[in-house]
Amino acid sequence: MIVYYYLADLQITSSGVMPSAWEIFSMTPLSSPSVTMSIASLVTAINVLIAVGFSIAGLMSPNSILPASSTPTDASFIFAMYAAARTIPLALMALIAIYKHSEPALLILGTLAGFIQLLDAGVGLLQHDLGKSIGPLVIAAFQFFAVYLLNRSPRSSIE
Q1: Are 106 and 98 a contacting pair, CB within 8 Å?
Q2: Do 4 and 63 fall into the same domain?
Q3: Is 58 part of a structural domain of the chain?
Q4: Structural domain span for residue 20
Q5: Which parts pass through the membrane (predicted)?
Q6: Which residue, among 40, 27, 38, 7, has the nearest Cα to 111 in the 3D structure?
Q7: pTM of this prediction?
Q8: pLDDT digits over 86-129, tens only?
Q9: Measuring CA to CA, how many Å separate 105 from each of 14, 54, 117?
Q10: For the chain, what is the domain count?
Q11: 14-51: pLDDT as tens digits
């Protein structure tokens, strides 16, 4: 029979002392391969899914993407199709890389997704739309940080 006692965030059992979840998390270094892979996977998945969401929104509801003074045209619809043609395959490949835990693929696709967001921020600047600049810039910063962490962490897979 195991008896549990709780004392100052420690779970003491008859078989020994068990650290709390916070202590376990704080003992895991940020450079741990599993932690960096998880961070890079999460950030990349969020990044590519946001990009896909905006490209699909451009197809379904162009008014939500275009500047307030613009009206949708056939040309804007064609550009939305080009955006979707690029973001959907990138998202699919990134999600497959995440599913397969492929660090090399995630490094490449994460870097690409970061550069795409950086260029999207430039488009927002050209439109003089602060919201369309800051959002992609923040996502790009998180993406590049996640790729940096993944790149400098020791490889968990045998190469």
Answers
A1: yes
A2: no
A3: yes
A4: 1-28
A5: 35-57, 77-99, 106-127, 133-150
A6: 40
A7: 0.74
A8: 999 999 999 999 999 999 999 999 999 999 999 999 998 998 88
A9: 46, 24, 18
A10: 2
A11: 555 555 555 555 555 666 778 899 999 999 999 999 99
Is there a domain that residue 157 lies in? no
Same domain? For 9 and 43 the reply is no
Task: Kindly list the distances between the CA atom of residue 132 and the CA atoms of 88, 125, 127, 157, in Å, as whole numbers in the listed order.
Answer: 20, 7, 8, 38
- Closest of 48, 76, 49, 51 to residue 62, by C-alpha: 76
Which of helix, strand or coil describes residue 20? coil
54 and 113 both lie in a single domain:
yes
109 and 70 in a common domain:
yes
Question: Containing H/E element for 152?
Answer: helix 131-152
Residue with tokens 């307030």: 68
4: burial class by Cβ within 10 Å (0-12, 13-18, 19+)? exposed
